[in-house]
Amino acid sequence: MKKILILLSSLFFFTACQYEVIKVEVIPPPDPNVELSFATDIVPIFTDGNRCTACHSPGKTNPDLTAANAYQSLMDGNFVVANDPSASLIYTYPHPDASTHRWKVYTVNQAELLFTWINQGVKNN
Ligand code: HEC
User: Fold this and answer.
1) What is the pTM of this model?
2) What does each C-alpha distance from 85 to 53, 89, 90, 108 come to in angstroms?
3) What is the sign, positive or negative, of the torsion defined by CA atoms of 53, 57, 61, 65?
4) Ligand 1 geometric centre to CA of 103 (Å)
5) Residue 107 lies in a domain
C-alpha cells in the first residue's frame, strides 16, 4: 500500500512538473527586394479581426482603413509619403515604439511590412 502511494505521488509529482514549451514564432523581416502587395500584405493588417477597421471605417475616424477605401483614404489624407516612412503617419502613429495612438499598435512584423511597402513607393497593387 505504501509503495502504491509513493508511486502515485511520484507520478503526480512528475506530471505536475510538466510544462508546455511555448513556441514564439519568429517571423523574418520582409525582403526589401521582393515587392509587397498592398491588397494582400498591407490591407489585412488593418482589416483582420477588425483590428483597425473597428474604428477606422466609413463615417468613423480618419483614415478609413477598410479594404475598399484604405488606399484612397491614405493618399487623400497624406497619411503616407512614398519612400519616407518617418513622414508617414500610417507608419509612425501606430508604431509599437513611438505610439501615442493608445488604441492599437502594430506588431513589430506589421510595422516592418508597412516600412517596406512605403519604401517600395506605396504601390496600389
Ligand atoms: C478603438 C478605436 C481605434 C482602433 C481599433 C484603431 N484606431 Fe487609429 N485612431 C483612433 C482614434 C480615436 C484616432 C484619433 C485620436 C487619436 O489620435 O488617438 C486615431 C488616429 C489614428 C491615426 C492618426 C490620424 C490623424 O489624423 O492623426 C492613424 C494613422 C491611425 N489611427 C491608424 C490606426 C491603425 C493602423 C490601426 C490598427 C492597427 C488603428 N488606428 C486602430 C481610434 C482607433
Assistant:
1) 0.84
2) 21, 8, 8, 14
3) positive
4) 7
5) yes
Cβ atoms within 10 Å, residue 97: 9
Range of the domain at 102: 29-119
Q: What is the DSSP letter of 12?
A: H
- What total of structural domains would you count in the chain? 1
Which atom of ligand 1 lies nearest, measured to the CA of 106? 38
Q: Whose CA is nearest to atom 27 of ligand 1?
A: 89
pLDDT in tens, the chain (125 residues): 566 555 555 555 555 566 667 766 678 889 999 999 999 999 999 999 999 999 999 999 999 999 999 999 999 999 999 999 999 999 999 998 887 888 899 999 999 999 999 999 999 99
- Distance from the alpha carbon of residue 63 to the mean position of ligand 1, in angstroms: 8
Determine the Cα–Cα distance for residues 14 and 45; give it in Å rounded to an integer: 43
Q: For residue 66, is it within any domain? A: yes
Question: Which of 69, 60, 66, 29 lies closest to 44, judged by CA?
Answer: 66
